[in-house]
Design a protein that fits this description.
The chain is an alpha/beta fold. Helices cover 35% and strands 22% of the residues. The longest helix is centred in the N-terminal third of the chain and has 23 residues. The chain is globular.
């Protein structure tokens, strides 16, 4: 792959009118800018808007889960047809990619998904990704398309993720855009508007949460206003929006997948000594365990949290939580090897 990979995510509010209809003028301008980026990047477009496109065809739509699924099934082909119409003048073809959690939690399926995208890129086709809402199980759904964009970006080794939204970026308490964030911490999270749009699922907290994960994995994230003139192109050039600065990251591709795409099933609280050992790249031993918060089986992925329940790392288990709780005196029992632990 001779081009860097770029993931562009557009939220529902950024491509719809005030009345909730798809805004074709915005989609046309998005297509123009994406066509320009396609000359230098392999692109993934993660676009919300299927529910917005389809809900008007349902009688007395109230937004229940079953109604959202039905609206998505109507709206997905409508949304893709509109994108196809506006990409056509630029000589660009598109493909639909409806993703489910299992495509990321199962590494074999994830690698198959990656191979499919690479084949599309070889043929100069841009995949447009969205969650497969029609069949996604409630408990295994992506939290929103910010998460889907991040999983694709981290898993595929993207150089940058652009999160297009209806606001111009992360705003400070005076309503001004914060141009650059070196570290996403509690102070930054306190700036996030707790509101979210009627049509979308996420909000600024969601964007910051997944920007933190992506930046930790070495990917630059820019949160920007999708309706800003030339906003996509200027976001890539760091001329607009909020740039979340990536960390230096030497994690392997497998462990990036482990940290982002794998399905976490358990949670383990450990003491400060164990936290320090894990951060120093040591294996996790039973001696440092305080409590099994959520159970897990051998081979499953679990979160390692400190005594304040802040996430320290994720890991693949070498034993089950049942074995841990029934062998509390076996202090040297290895719960996770250092090679299967990813610091967050």
């Amino acid at each position: 792959m001779n081009k860097p990979i770029l993931v562009l995510k557009l939220g529902t509010a950024s491509i719809t009118t005030a009345g909730g209809e798809l805004d074709e003028a915005v989609i046309s301008d998005v297509s123009r800018q994406v066509a320009e980026l396609a000359k230098t990047h392999h692109l993934i477009l993660v676009s919300s808007g299927a529910v917005a496109a389809g809900k008007k065809y349902l009688k007395n739509y109230k937004g229940k889960i079953s109604e959202r699924k039905a609206a998505a099934s109507i709206g997905n082909p409508l949304l893709l047809n509109i994108y196809a119409k506006h990409f056509l003048p630029h000589g660009i073809k598109i493909a639909q990619s409806l993703c489910e959690r299992q495509h990321f939690s199962n590494r074999t399926q994830f690698l198959q998904l990656k191979q499919t995208y690479e084949e599309l890129w070889k043929n100069e086709i841009i995949p447009i990704a969205n969650e497969n809402d029609v069949v996604s199980d409630l408990e295994l759904k992506f939290s929103d398309n910010d998460e889907l964009a991040t999983l694709l970006g981290v898993g595929f080794g993207a150089s940058v993720i652009l999160l297009g939204t209806s606001v111009p970026g992360v705003l400070d308490k005076e309503g001004k855009v914060v141009p650059r964030i070196e570290t996403i911490n509690n102070e930054i999270f306190s700036l996030a508007d707790k509101n979210k749009s009627d049509l979308g699922l996420g909000g600024m907290i969601s964007k910051l949460t997944f920007a933190h994960l992506a930046a930790t994995m070495g990917i630059k994230v820019v949160i920007f206003g999708a309706r800003t003139p030339n906003g996509i192109l200027e976001a890539l050039q760091e001329k607009t929006g909020t740039v979340c600065v990536p960390k230096v990251c030497s994690v392997s591709a497998r462990n990036k997948w482990l940290a982002s795409g794998s399905l976490v099933t358990g949670r383990l609280m450990v003491d400060d000594g164990a936290c320090d050992a894990v951060r120093k790249r040591s294996s996790l031993l039973a001696v440092g365990v305080i409590e099994v918060i959520e159970r897990f089986s051998e081979g499953e992925i679990f979160e390692i949290v400190d005594e304040r329940q802040h996430i320290v790392a994720v890991a693949r288990s070498r034993t089950s939580s049942e074995v841990i709780t029934s062998n509390t005196k076996q202090r040297n029992l290895e719960i996770a090897n250092a090679s299967d632990i990813v610091i967050l």
